[in-house]
Automatic annotation (TrEMBL), chain A:
Domain FAD/NAD(P)-binding: 10-299
Top-tier EC class: oxidoreductase
Amino-acid positions noted as binding siroheme in the UniProt annotation, renumbered to this chain: 695
Cofactor note: Binds 1 [4Fe-4S] cluster per subunit.
Source organism of the structure: Nakamurella endophytica
Underlying gene: nasD
Name this polypeptide is given: assimilatory sulfite reductase (ferredoxin)
Automatic annotation (TrEMBL), chain B:
GO molecular function, one term: oxidoreductase activity, acting on paired donors, with incorporation or reduction of molecular oxygen
Domain of life: Bacteria
Cross-referenced PROSITE patterns: RIESKE
Key words, A-Z: 2Fe-2S, Iron, Iron-sulfur, Metal-binding
Record-linked InterPro entries: Rieske_2Fe-2S, Rieske_2Fe-2S_sf
RNA-binding listed as a keyword: no
Name used for this protein in its record: Rieske domain-containing protein
Residues of the Rieske domain: 9-101
Length: 831, 105
């Protein structure tokens, strides 16, 4: 043992708070106990606890035991010697010794020393605070330590305590006020500043916050300096500078914090507002002595928030262990997001514009306690204050921290416009909240995957299968993963690839396919995939893309198709299929209905169901029966199974409806006849309504057309009413149905050529931007409108109905052979 | 442990290139896959997740994807790469007559 000790470096940490303990954890993670003999000196007689949670403890939201980060057993099991309840009194830099007040260990020898003494409550000078022997008068509490908090709880529960005054209207003061209120006390907050939380937010935001605090029944006294505490045995009230007296039974002092620098100062280290350190967290005065946390001044800044402290601890551990000797701390952009007395408050960067050219957006709704203010400089978010609402905070924090590009329409930074790109405050979601409703993945599972080492969104999705169902949760999954990784997310190079197996984005992939004239999926793999390797997950998207690009020239390899596209039906949970014949515009005939009825009986369809797209679905059809089903129906495929143009829903229009102003039924039939079955990056659902009453739900379709008075037609794009709800954007208004058909085709082709795989129009349209789409498709700003029209015409000409094609003779051996030969299908219950 | 028996499933041509087909063998359902390079692999035909038909799945040289929920199984040993229980893998070869021979037992 002594031999090992002799070769291990002695690392001594003064301070067992969050900064000191985190530094030791980071050091042990990098080098293990074999290289360092670690001693921690902590003046509180406990293991390490989460100081941030003290206000929760006060409010009874956390139990006493729940706030420990490292209980005393942790130190033993990690080989760390903890001197708890011991105070360091002096650092002898020449002898490399720390002197303590503990008679059993009066000195501790170090090779390297870390000062992490943190901070203490600032106590303003007030008469009557102390008893003659220097203790606080009964009922006076600073709010800083676990013992302070326990003392407050015990005192607040006493029968004699009915009223409390909190001195300080900052974050901690307001939290203390709310906590005390939860113990049944009536509470007043006395604040010397002009508005609440003056360190973090501006006067307008402070005023909005004050209304919310007032409504909670907490009295607020601004510009109020406390000059005296009243009562001799125990507190009976306070007196303000203007002579006002507020009666109370306890006083909590939360007037800010001051760095603990006495030890460093006394031992000859450079101290200004706090202990001065360089970018390696090293003191200016001694190469073997470092400092970290709230006791530190770095590049003129002293931080009182936990995030910068974590960043400092990581750098310090890299330097101490040599894991990264060049590691440097460059300061932190601090953003705060908290609940202040139950009211969410987020603040980052500037409170107000500073230059003439700064953009400043403000929205205030004091009645509802809502305040939002953004400061934008050079298209970057440089400041934000949000009170009373957290819907946009996750987005704003990211935009601020990483300098992300901002939406052109600034309003979107303040409000959720219903467009599928909504942001949520992920940190407030409970762990058991199911995020991916298709695969049943909750937030906790995502966070766990990140903690287990997944560093990209894709790897988390692969691991948990979140986002791999309908995909509508992907935005939220990304947000949670980014939040859980706390900025440690590596950029996923594959995020921009069109398919996972080929490292190219869509434009580059299409360019390569054209340049090398690759007309089959296997040729694409051979030419463009790493090592020419096939990738099962990429096949379907490539098959669709190649068909779109080459039409007649496409070399169709059936293995590249998903099962639905191999057998032209939608696979069901038991391995049977659903069959949906085409009914253009939702119009059918008695003859068609008779044939459908006959088929349903002959092949024992277990369920006959009307679809949302105005068609009839026959369910529970066995794979081997499909060709005969199609032959008997004698109708074309409705493409209810494909990533393709699906259906056009219509209303009856002007021929019958007394409100109709256009022949919506005919236009729906025309559109479906022309664009039926076209493959696209994701499914396309359309509708045509005969008047703005919108009975065919055109406003919430990928493409929706609405007749308006005067023989004109509105064309909407990017609507959705599935997993996402979004009203489509009005692309243009046209004068006749023919032009509507053309514009619809032009949009479809632009979408086919430019959307990512499985990117629905409700994401694609906002991504490209309505104005840009209007410029390209309506005004022909890029001069490609004719090319688009021509390309879609080629695809239309190449279209063949797959049912009549494959009903005659199978395309491959065993195309319709059962894949579950021993199962008796269908297994669906009969109604 | 009973001795392994080899069963002739008929011509390999029944299976299109890079696809799978299912066979009933001695009370079991076995999916046989014919890779693009001509080699053959055999797995239990039923996905342990929700009973999906693996013979309907898309494949590459390494894995087959269940068509119902895209769970992946390695063709070589039946282990899942998406966290599902494994499926049984069988020895399968193409004999000199071009017939598939699968070993069970």
């Amino acid at each position: 043992m002594s031999e090992i000790s002799a070769t291990r470096r002695r690392l001594v940490v003064i301070g067992n708070g969050m900064a000191g303990a985190r530094t030791v954890e980071e050091v042990l993670e990098r080098s293990g106990p074999e290289r360092f003999e670690v001693t921690m000196i902590g003046s509180e007689p406990y293991g390490n606890y989460n100081r941030i949670l003290l206000s929760h403890l006060l409010a009874g939201e956390e139990a006493d035991g729940d706030i420990y980060l490292n209980p005393t057993e942790w130190y033993e099991s990690h080989g760390v010697r903890l001197l708890s309840g011991v105070t360091a009194t002096r650092i002898d830099r020449y002898a490399k010794l720390v002197n303590t007040d503990d008679p059993t260990t009066p000195t501790v020898r170090y090779d390297q020393l870390v000062i992490a003494t943190g901070s203490t409550s600032f106590l303003p000078t007030m008469e009557g605070m102390y008893t003659d022997d220097g203790a606080f008068v009964a009922g006076v509490f600073p709010f800083r330590t676990l013992d302070d908090t326990r003392g407050m709880i015990a005192y607040a529960r006493h029968d004699h305590s009915t009223r409390a005054v909190v001195i300080g209207g900052g974050l901690l003061g307001l939290e203390a006020a709310r906590g005390l209120q939860s113990h049944g006390l009536s509470v007043d907050v006395v604040h010397a500043g002009t508005h609440l939380m003056s360190a973090q937010i501006g006067p307008d935001a402070g005023a909005v916050l004050q209304r919310s605090v007032d409504r909670l029944g907490i009295g607020v006294h601004l510009r109020a300096r406390t000059t005296a505490l009243l009562g001799s045995e125990r507190i009976t009230g306070i007196r303000l500078q203007d002579g006002t007296e507020l009666p109370c039974d306890m006083v909590v002092i939360a007037a800010g914090i001051r760095p603990n620098v006495e030890l460093a100062s006394r031992s000859g280290f450079t101290v200004e507002r706090a202990i001065v350190v360089d970018d390696a967290m090293r003191t200016l005065d001694d190469d073997d002595v470092y400092a970290v946390g709230e006791c530190v001044q770095h590049r003129g800044e002293v931080y009182g928030l936990v995030a910068p402290v974590w960043e400092q601890a990581v750098v310090l551990a890299d330097v101490l262990t040599g894991a990264d000797p060049t590691a440097a701390y460059h300061g932190s952009r601090t953003s705060t997001k908290l609940k202040v007395a139950g009211v969410p408050v987020a603040a980052m960067g500037l409170q107000a514009p500073e230059r003439d050219t700064d953009e400043h957006l403000v929205f205030a709704e004091p009645r509802r306690g809502i305040y939002r203010s953004l400061v934008i400089r050079d298209d970057k978010l440089v400041g934000a204050t949000v009170v009373g609402d957290e819907s946009k905070v996750a987005f704003l924090t990211q935009a601020y921290d990483r300098g992300m590009p901002l939406p052109e329409e600034r309003l979107r930074m303040m409000f959720d416009l219903a467009d599928g790109g909504g942001d949520v405050a992920v940190e407030d979601l409970p762990d058991d909240l199911q995020v991916c409703n298709c695969n049943g993945v909750d937030k906790g599972a995502l966070v766990h995957a990140v903690q287990d080492g997944c560093t990209t969104v894709q790897s988390v999705m692969d691991r948990t299968r979140a986002g791999k169902g309908c995909g509508s949760c992907k935005v939220q999954v990304c947000a949670i993963v980014e939040w859980a990784a706390g900025g440690a997310l590596t950029v996923d190079p594959s995020a921009n690839w069109y398919v996972p197996g080929i490292p190219l984005d869509k434009p580059a992939l299409m360019a390569a396919i054209r340049a090398q004239h690759l007309t089959s999926v296997s040729a694409v793999f051979a030419a463009l995939a790493p090592a020419g390797a096939e990738d099962a997950r990429s096949k379907m998207a490539l098959a669709s893309l190649l068909k779109m690009m080459w039409d007649d020239e496409y070399v169709d390899e059936r293995d590249a198709r998903f099962i639905n596209d191999r057998v032209h039906a939608n696979i069901q949970r038991d391995g049977t299929f659903s069959v949906v014949p085409q009914m253009r515009g939702g119009v059918t005939t008695p003859d068609q209905l008779r044939r459908i009825a006959d088929v349903a009986e002959k092949f024992d369809a277990k369920l006959v169901k009307l679809t949302g797209g105005q068609r009839i679905d026959l369910l529970g059809i066995r794979k081997e029966d499909l060709p005969q089903v199609w032959a008997d129906l004698g109708m074309p495929s409705g493409y209810a199974y494909g990533k393709s143009f699906r259906t056009v829903k219509t209303c009856v229009g002007q021929d019958f409806c007394r409100f109709g102003v256009g022949d919506s039924t005919q236009l729906g039939i025309d559109i479906e006849t022309r664009y039926q079955g076209l493959e696209s990056p994701a499914k396309l659902k359309l509708a045509v309504s005969g008047c703005p009453r919108n009975c065919a739900e055109s406003y919430v379709k990928d493409i929706g057309v609405v007749a308006i008075e005067g023989g004109r037609w509105e064309v909407y794009v990017g609507g959705a009413a599935g997993a996402h709800i979004r009203k489509g954007d009005l692309l243009c208004t046209v004068d006749n149905p023919e032009t509507a058909v053309t514009i619809v085709g032009r949009f479809i082709q632009y979408y086919r050529e430019n959307a990512n795989w499985l990117e629905r129009t409700y994401s694609f349209v906002p991504r490209v931007g309505l104005e840009r789409l209007q410029a390209i498709l309506v005004d022909d700003s890029d001069g490609i409108a004719a090319d688009l029209d021509e390309a879609v015409a080629r695809s239309v000409a190449a279209y063949q109905d797959p049912w009549q094609q494959d009903a005659a003779a199978p395309a491959t051996s065993g195309q319709f052979r059962t894949s579950l030969p021993l199962e008796v299908l269908p297994k669906v219950p009969v109604r | 442990m009973t001795a392994a028996t080899t069963v002739n499933l008929g011509p390999v041509d029944q299976i299109p290139l890079a696809e799978g087909r299912a066979f009933a063998v001695d009370g079991r359902q076995i999916a046989v896959f014919r890779l693009r390079d001509g080699t053959v692999r055999a797995l239990d035909a039923v996905c342990p997740h929700r009973g999906g038909p693996l013979a309907d799945g898309q494949l590459d040289a390494e894995v087959v994807l269940c068509p119902l929920h895209m769970n992946a199984y390695r063709l070589a040993d039946g282990c899942s790469t998406t966290g599902q229980p494994p499926v049984a893998a069988y020895q399968v070869t193409v004999d000199d007559h071009g017939d598939l021979r699968v070993q069970i037992g």
